[in-house]
Each structure stands twice: as C-alpha cells, then as structure tokens.
C-alpha cells in the first residue's frame, strides 16, 4: 500500500461514522450525565515508529490524538524525521486482534498517559474484552493497567513494524482540557484509582510537595536555574522535594491525595493535581518563553486555588534563560506567605 505522512488528515471517527452509520456508534450507559461513546473500526493501520493510527489510508482519528493541532505539528517536523523513512510503499503485517491502541504521539508523557487511562476506564465500563497496545511505553503504563484490573494477557507491549489490526476501538476524545465538559468521567477516574490503592497503609504523609523535574522528563528544557535559592526558600515553608518519576503509581496517587499544596516548575507531573483533594492549592512556575498551563480545567473542576509564578520579560529586561525556569523568589514567597 502507498503511504505519504504529509497527506494525513485528522478527523473525528465517531462523528464521521455516526453521521453515516449511527447504529455503529454506541453510548456508554455507565455515564448517565455525559455523552460518552465508543466505536469499533475494522482494519486500522498502526505505524509504531510514527506513533500513529490510520483509518481508510489517510485519516488520523481525533479520538487517538485529542487535538488536530498535534497532527499538523508532527507533520511540520516530519514526525521527528521518521516520516521520510516510512513514506512510500508499506507492506504492513496483519494482526488478528481487536484492540485499543494507547501508544499515540505523546503517550509516554505521564500527563498524556493519564488521558489514555481514561480511555481504558471507559472501555472497561463499556464491556470491552480485547487487548490494549502499549508499544514501547514506560513501565508505568503496564503497572497502571495492572493497578486498575487489566490483566497482563490483555496487553500487547511491542509492535515491531507497521501493522493492520482486525479492529480498533475508539472512545470520545476526553483530555484534560475537556475536564469541565466531562466532570462525571474525571471524577469516576479519580474514584477508580483511589479505590485501587485504598487497602494500602501509607506511613509518610507530606502536606506540601515540590515536584522536581527528574531524569524521566519527557520534554527537554524547563530546568530550574536558581535551584539553590528556591530550595532554601521552600524549605522554610515545609515543602518535601519529590521526583514522581521514581515512584510507583500507587505511591504517587497516595502522596498527592494526602498533600494540601503542590508546587514546582511546570511539567507533565502537574497532572497529579487531579489526585489531590478538592480545594487544594497548586503553584506552577513557568519560563515566560513557555507558558502552558495545561491543567487549568482540572483545577477548575476540583476548585483548587491556582497560582502562576513567572519571571519578568520585557524589551528592557529580556528573559535570558529560554525554556529554563528562573523563579522570581519575591513572587513565590508572597504566595507562600498568603497560603501559610
């Protein structure tokens, strides 16, 4: 088959199929107050090197990547160079399985992986009995599936070459930015994970957490420039510095549930705000050259108090650190004084 990555387009498969064949799109009755839907599509091509699913030869399902911008962005950089390698004639393998493919553009980032887990929760509530594809994802992917009751024999951890699956299942696209549109789904996701760890005893409780960007951070940049000064400041206010990437998912969720304040340099770990108790406090620090408060809707849903810390960047005093983060200590301390 012929393949050209530059010709791919993003479409909502649920909307497209629903308009032509409405009986093929099924609503998940478990969710009473939210329209959550599932569709099964036959002969879905998965290209692991591009982390992409394709329907009808050129359609990338919105339900796989959440935002059509993600596709155009990856095309603009030629899928990190892999697009040229795979354009041309493909001879995909056929895998005789019904699956849900969770290995998409940014699934290896913890923040986006939790969005893939929401798909799993929806499908399990729907009654899906097929397999999940987590091709070459970090260990937390398999651990988290196990945590919520998906057995190892229902997981495919490696797809070595372009493959056509007998069918793939897609769910309504629900990501962090749609939290207020689907509050029932997000609250059920919280409950699912809280129930999964409820039997454990946790001896270490830290009320204030500072998230350190560890070695497993997905995006480069975002390093803390004035770390020694910042750590000296937060120590006075009783913060525990943690690297979520070295903890098990059970430990991460438990630690977040018991914390009152979450702070640190912006990164995927701030998605943990969804595991804090309602009306907690979140303080997120940014470079003025990269401001992406992607968890705002989660904070709104849970009624968290949210503070943003950004250093100055003006024509007179241009910010010199690019995506790395220099924290304005006066602003940080002002916030900490007010929540103390």
User: Number of domains in the coordinates?
Assistant: 2
Instruction: Extract low-pLDDT stretches.
Output: none
What proportion of the residues is helical, as a percent range? 25-40%
Structural class: alpha/beta
Strand content: 15-25%
Secondary structure layout:
Blueprint: E1 2-3, E2 9-11, H1 13-20, E3 25-27, E4 37-47, E5 52-54, E6 59-61, H2 62-65, H3 68-76, H4 82-86, E7 88-89, E8 93-101, H5 110-126, E9 131-133, H6 139-147, E10 155-156, E11 163-171, H7 183-197, E12 208-211, H8 227-236, E13 240-242, H9 249-257, E14 261-265, E15 281-286, H10 296-301, E16 305-310, H11 329-339
Parallel strand pairs: 2-6, 8-9, 8-11, 9-10, 12-13, 12-14, 14-15, 15-16
Antiparallel strand pairs: 1-7, 3-4, 4-5, 4-11
């Amino acid at each position: 088959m012929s393949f050209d990555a530059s010709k791919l387009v993003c479409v909502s498969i649920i909307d497209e199929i629903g308009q032509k064949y409405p009986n093929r799109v099924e609503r998940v009755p478990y969710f009473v107050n939210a329209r959550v839907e599932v569709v099964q599509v036959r002969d879905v091509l998965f290209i692991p090197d591009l982390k992409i699913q394709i329907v009808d030869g050129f359609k990338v399902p919105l339900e796989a990547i959440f935002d059509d911008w993600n596709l155009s962005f990856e095309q603009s950089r030629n899928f990190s160079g892999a697009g040229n390698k795979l354009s041309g004639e493909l001879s995909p393998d056929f895998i005789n399985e019904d699956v849900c493919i969770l290995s998409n553009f940014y699934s290896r980032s913890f923040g986006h992986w939790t969005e893939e887990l929401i798909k799993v929760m929806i499908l399990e509530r729907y009654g899906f009995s097929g397999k999940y594809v987590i091709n070459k994802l970090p260990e937390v992917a398999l651990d988290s599936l196990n945590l919520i009751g998906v057995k190892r024999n229902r997981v495919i951890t490696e797809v070595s070459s372009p493959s056509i699956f007998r069918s793939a299942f897609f769910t309504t696209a629900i990501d962090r930015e749609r939290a207020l549109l689907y509050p029932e789904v997000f609250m059920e996701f919280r409950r699912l994970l809280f129930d999964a760890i409820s039997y454990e005893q946790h001896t270490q409780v830290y009320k204030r957490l500072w998230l350190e960007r560890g070695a497993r951070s997905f995006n480069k940049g975002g390093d803390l420039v004035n770390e020694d000064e910042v750590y000296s400041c937060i120590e006075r206010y009783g913060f525990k510095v943690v690297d979520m990437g070295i903890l098990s998912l059970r430990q991460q969720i438990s630690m977040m549930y018991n914390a009152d304040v979450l702070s640190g340099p912006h990164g995927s770990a701030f998605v943990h705000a969804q595991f804090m108790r309602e009306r907690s406090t979140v303080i997120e620090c940014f470079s003025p050259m990269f401001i992406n408060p992607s968890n705002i809707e989660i904070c709104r849903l849970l009624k968290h108090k949210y503070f943003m810390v950004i250093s100055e960047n003006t024509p007179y005093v241009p910010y010199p650190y690019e995506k790395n983060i220099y924290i304005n200590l006066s602003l940080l301390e002002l916030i900490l004084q007010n929540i103390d």
